[in-house]
Amino acid sequence: MKYTPQKRISVVIFSMISLFALTGLACRVSLPDFGELANLLPATDTPTLPEALPELPAVEPVEIIQRDATGSSEESTLISLYARINPAVVNITSLIDENGQFSGYSEGSGFVFNQEGYIVTNAHVVHGANGLDVTFSNNATRPATLIGEDFSSDLAVIKVENLPEGISPLALGEINTVQVGQTVVAIGNPFGFDGTMTRGIVSAIGRTIPALNTFSIPQAIQTDAPINPGNSGGPLLNLDGEVIGVNAQIRTSSTEGANSGVGFAIPVSILRRVIPALIADGQYTWPWLGVVGGDLDWVTAQAMNLSVDRGAYLSQIIENGPAFKAGLQGTSGTGTVDGRTVETGGDVVIAIDGQPVYSFDDMLMYIALKTSPGQEVTLTVLRDGKEQQITLRLEPRPTDLSAPLEPDIQP
Fold it and tell me: Which of 29, 45, 90, 205 is the most buried (most CB within 10 A)?
């Protein structure tokens, strides 16, 4: 399925190109001699105390609360979580050659998925690399092989032989347990600073973010946990240490791509579908409906004399796609309401397989997460104000609608 929202946020894909070594400040600060400094202090006479001090009112004793040596409950949880999780989080260096000559490298993050040495990361971290090095928290380094990558989810799997001792793969959480307001942590390598943990909350769920092609990634998790270039591919975790997402993008107004408090992670629901397929087959085949559209709003609903004002409005039907073959219709004209001109005539999907559809994202998530290529689905649509049932067979998502982005491109 292809999705083109009317308003699309700008995002930065985390792929940090590291062509130069980071150096500390080399300035030297001159401090005054403390003996000379004492001579600069003003001289004062010894104060004279009064013969009798005024009597102060009695004060109730204050109870001193003893703090446990391990800190607060949350601090203890975070400390324990880091000690347990960080060994499984890795730094991935993607070596880049041009015409047989080394031209630079990019850095990202990843995490150990299973004991066989498979590691999850972002596709944009490893795509196009001529070589891959994985560095663990104990500084052990292993060469890695690309097993598979998926541009529609921006996920990839690489593999190392012989994991260092003492590393346990990370457990996956469940998307239906993720709630707005819950505390989350990100562990990765922002700006090359390996083993960095940051803390925040889930700011929103169910976001739709751009993929590396013309499609979109549904059910993304928005967080204010600071994530920056180099965090790409690292885990977003709940306080149980379970992976609930893979850090991938940020919203930023900075030309340097620095975090401004709005980050996005690919949800664990997509990891559970895509990663096993990448390990087994090197690729994942997505189901495809073949439509472009957006959310139905009240203006369009009024212009089309509809009895509902929520649903998925289909503005374009991709030629020879499943929706096209089933006879679904896109925009055929325009209408004006209160001086606003809007598209009209497209089918409005209000349910799929009996499940209500209140937005285009609802339809996108259902197709992406609950169906497979070759499966039949039944859409309930409104056309000319009348309800219709249209059954179609989903097809494999095409791969040639647009070329994937290079890792160093920041859309």
Answer: 90
Domain count for the chain = 3
Specify the higher pLDDT residue, 237 or 400. 237
pLDDT tens profile 9-34: 333 333 333 333 332 323 223 333 43
Is there a domain that residue 377 lies in? yes
Please state the length of the chain: 411
Domain stops at, among 262, 281, 300: 281
pLDDT tens, 326-350?
999 999 999 999 999 999 999 999 9
CATH of the domain at 296: 2.30.42.10
How far is Cα 86 from Cα 184, in angstroms, rounded to an integer? 15
The amino acid that residue 32 corresponds to is P
Helices 268-281 + 360-370 axis angle, to 10: 40
DSSP codes, 65-122 = PPPPTT-SHHHHHHHHHHHHHGGGEEEEEEEEEETTEEEEEEEEEEEE-STT-EEEE-
pLDDT tens per residue across span 119-174: 999 999 999 999 999 999 999 999 999 999 999 999 999 999 999 999 999 999 99
Average pLDDT over residues 388-394: 97
Among 57, 65, 112, smallest CA distance to 90 is for 112
DSSP string for residues in 142-158: EEEEEEEEETTTTEEEE
Of the segments 190-194, 353-357, 396-400, which one has the largest average pLDDT value? 353-357
Considering the entire predicted model, what is its pTM?
0.78
- The residue written with tokens 């000559």 in the block is 101
Which residues sit opposite 247 in a β-bridge? 265
Judgement on whether residues 302 and 381 belong to the same structural domain of the protein: yes
Four-point Cα dihedral 293, 295, 297, 303, nearest 10 = 20
The DSSP output letter for 166 is T
- State whether 277 and 297 are in the same domain: no
Q: Do residues 366 and 302 lie in contact, with contact meaning Cβ atoms separated by under 8 Å?
A: no
Amino acid occupying residue 372: S
Q: What is the CATH number of the domain that holds 263?
A: 2.40.10.10
Residue 94 structural domain: 82-159
Residues tagged active-site: 124, 154, 232
